[in-house]
């Protein structure tokens, strides 16, 4: 997989689409996961990429090679200009009960503490998601 690859993923409920946005030497692919399944491939693939999306880290190449997911690259698109830099992720630091007590921010290279009071709820969490989570996001479940 390469940045810009639009991948169609076949599920029992329809076809979903993800865009590979970034590669990292220590993490799996960063993906834009478009919400919503399609019965058939849209005549204009831009329709699939107009849907709301989530940013995740997921081993797409490995999952397809292992047969965990069925899919194929169906187009090559430019990564949107606003997202050419590696995505900014948030990482919780948890107490003994598992509650997040503060957050760090990771830009693919450096990790820095989040500023007190900064709104980071919209940022994706730095975690590698599994197949079920990816399929749920494609189906529109967060």
UniProtKB/TrEMBL annotation:
Name used for this protein in its record: Uncharacterized protein
Organism, as annotated: Pikeienuella piscinae
The organism's taxonomic lineage, starting at the top: Bacteria, Pseudomonadati, Pseudomonadota, Alphaproteobacteria, Rhodobacterales
């Amino acid at each position: 997989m390469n940045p810009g690859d639009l991948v169609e993923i076949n599920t029992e409920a329809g076809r979903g689409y993800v865009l590979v946005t970034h590669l990292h030497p220590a993490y799996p692919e960063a993906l834009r996961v478009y919400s919503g399944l399609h019965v058939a491939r849209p005549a204009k693939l831009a329709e699939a990429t107009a849907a709301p999306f989530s940013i995740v880290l997921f081993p797409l190449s490995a999952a397809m090679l292992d047969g965990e997911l069925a899919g194929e690259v169906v187009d090559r698109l430019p990564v949107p200009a606003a997202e050419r830099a590696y995505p900014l992720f948030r990482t919780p630091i948890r107490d003994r009960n598992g509650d997040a007590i503060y957050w760090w921010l990771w830009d693919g290279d450096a990790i820095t503490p989040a500023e007190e009071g900064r709104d980071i709820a919209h940022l994706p969490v730095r975690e590698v998601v599994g197949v079920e989570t990816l399929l749920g996001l494609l189906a529109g479940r967060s």
